[in-house]
Amino acid sequence: MNSKVFETLDPRGEGTGVEAEAPSEDLGMIADPFNPEDIDVVTRMMTVDLLLSRARSGMVDLQPEFQRRWGIWDQRRQSRLIESMLLRIPLPNLYAAEDENERWEIVDGIQRLSTVARFIEPDIVSEDGFALTEVRDTSHEAMQYFWIDDSDGRQVLVEVEGLGLAHFFDGAAVSFDRDQRWVASVVPLVLHSMESDASIVETHVSARNFASAMHVHASTEWLSTFAVEEKIANGAELWERRSELFPNLEFIPRTKNQIMRLGAGEHLFLQTQAALSKLNRSVEEWDPKQTPVPSYPFHVRPESESRINEGLFDFDDGSGTTVTFSPHVYLAPPPHRLHFVIRSVPRKMAVIGHVGRKLGIG
Q1: Which of these, 98, 160, 177, 241, could form a disulfide with 211 (CB 3.0-4.6 Å)?
Q2: What are the CA-CA distances from residue 274 to residues 214, 226, 261, 309 (Å)?
Q3: Cα–Cα distance for residue pair 331/46, rounded to 1 Å
Q4: Which helix (DSSP H) or strand (DSSP E) does residue 250 occupy?
């Protein structure tokens, strides 16, 4: 006979993930209280593999009598936990009581550990496995930027949000020069990002950094790329004058509505205009005999193989030929993109295939 598990609710009536406790049949006084001095508290660093190995061999009790049962969390909460682990976001500690045979009874962490077991090795908890659902957009919030601190002889990843944003938007961070580690015009970073298939990609990138006037002067050429030669009212005017403004760019038919609906003063319109101007200039200065692609003034990224295989970036280029527009740059506000391909014949050009919201996320 299956027993039902009830969940406690918060003041708004939403689930808390905590099992509602049934009234105790024994409300008497504790006859033999424990002595705190008899308890040893030991902290251990455990891998997921080792935890599952112990659970598989029966050395971890996931359902001690005093603990609430697993199964409280819904699919969404379980997916969020696995997603956080894939992003290497630190999780709260697990607490267990160890008996004389070194067998553990989980005191706090039943839902987390059973979720991990169900995702990786569901037989451990005698449950069906599950796949991630409602994976969050991977444009910005699923990205983490880390600075490598090896000042004490060992490499430690320190999360740096400001420098990460500088890289993400191809901008620059402003740092105080109180620490020699930040007195650099370019700071190397490690980017952890999650693809739509929940795989984690680690990329070594860098961010521009201004910690002194010297750093600003060294970036004069980069700063000049933000100058737009002529003020354009809106996306409609940008489209009508595209041949005049961007002689080194071509636009496939589907981009017409994407650009024309950009409104005056919108941040996305300004970002699009600036990105097109930079791309046009880089193609103009490009020598196809020297390099296969231009030297871009911003970060150009390819799409993941799994997303390419979904056909999300395959568009008719206007001549009846289907082209995969994988290379792209980020546009603010996220999650917006500008996708393009580079061609050297019959003339050198960049062909714009998509301007707008990230494809494949609804």
Answers
A1: 177
A2: 25, 7, 17, 30
A3: 40
A4: strand 249-251
What CA–CA distance (Å, rounded) separates 274 from 355?
13
SS3 category, 84 = helix
Express the helix, strand and coil content of the chain in percent, nearest 5 each: 30, 25, 50
Neighbours of 34 (CB within 10 A): 8
pLDDT in tens, 330-350: 887 667 899 999 999 999 999
Is 0.70 topped by the overall pTM? Answer: no
CB 107 within 8 A of CB 100: no
Output 160-166 pairs: Cβ under 8 A, ≥24 positions apart.
160/189, 163/187, 163/189, 163/207, 163/209, 164/189, 164/191, 164/207, 166/207, 166/208, 166/209
CA dist 344 and 294 (Å) reads 10
Question: How far, in whole angstroms, is CA 272 from its chain's centroid?
Answer: 22
**DSSP SS3 for 284:** helix
Contacts of 272 (CB under 8 A, 6+ apart): 235, 238, 259, 262, 331, 338, 355
> What are the extents of the domains in the chain?
7-125, 143-224, 235-357
Residue 295 has pLDDT above 70, yes or no: yes
**Tokens for 14?**
């939403």
